[in-house]
Amino acid sequence: MAVGTNGTNGPNGGSLPKGTPLTEPSPVAETDPAVYGEYEAKWGKAAFPATEDEWIARAKEVADILATDAVQRDLENKSPRAEIALLKHSQLLRVLGPTKYGGGGQPWNVAYKLIREVAKTDGSIGMLLGYHLLWSTSANVVGTPEQADRTHKLIIENNWFVGGAVNPRDQDQVITQDGDHIVFNGFKHFNTGGVVSDLTVLEGVLEGTEDHIFAIVETKQPGIQFLHNWNNVGLRLTESGSVRVINVRVPWTDALGWSATDKKPFDEILKIPFARLLLPTIQLVFSNFYLGIALGALSAGSAYTRTSTRAWPYTGGDTKSAATDEFYILERYGNFHAHLAAVTALADASGLAVASVYSNYSENRSELTWRGRGELAEKVAAVKVVATDEALQVTAGIFEVTGAKATSSKVGLDRFWRDVRTHTLHDPVAYKNRELGRWQLLDEIPEPTWYT
What we know:
By secondary structure, the chain is α+β, with helices and mostly antiparallel strands. It contains 14 helices and ten strands.
């Protein structure tokens, strides 16, 4: 598979859409991949995970490693070059890839559990893993079988990490034609993981049409310029800042789902419900790292309560000797546990539903109906609603059962809430509730959008 490169004399002469910010990026500090060098050797000698349990065990290993300095890394806010190296060493990036190229060959329901495990101790790295798994398999959904095969071979054999510059809220990138190539130009306020990626997914609209094109390009090229301006409340290590795309040239053969001969989309690929599976797939990615972050907060809060929280002495005659005997603390932890257990069960059921759709229709894409796609979207939407609600409830409420000293920055419990609060604003959950309401009352499947 060829990858797009920058052309200095593209059809737009290097110009950018009106209003594109032109500020220069500031220097960026990165974590050092050498800190995880021992795991490259360790996992390189270990047996490649073969079962669901083995993959989950590997993800737990990664989470435990990240947990040792998660609070400090969050405070330092460095570009996660080392953490991506750790994901590569662990083989988690390959979990969905075909076995013939060295992938794990696992279904999506397993991948969702790995995202959740990693997010328990580091929400940023759990999010990056989830986005990579979506983008690295996007050709399965919107590409031809030949394009999907080439993409898998490229990504899996090189063990590459994939980022994406596909923020729908911004103006679409403009795509122009130049012989056997298409050329991308544009700006995105948000991308995810691009700074530390090997490949980047670009998406735009072909000039003079309303047709969208996805393509996967090499990240390290002059035409992809990251502004290194991600400094938000939470998910501080996701490198979700702005990116400029200037005259990035891509062979027509790499325009996913398009004919390089006719320069037209394959209607049997891009105009059917199967081609709209990327959105429910990634929406469940979101829910699983929300859930993982909430479970991590519950675990960290429990450990703090057991070791550091003091019983309240002014109880009017019901004083306890230990915080773990306090009725209200036990009640809150029990309630958190029950609700997260319910969300976990719902997320697992929806993960199986996503995996089933891919298993049943990947070889016969045209057989998936709009109704079938809509029903899957509503299963995923239900998870998104309750995962958002419970993750916010738990990550904020954990301070009620840990106490005032637990708000110290060195404890780091605040990072769980900050991470969930940041990404749950990605698309308003109120619209998911409305969507589910129309499903419940009117039996209406949702209109496929960039967020549904």
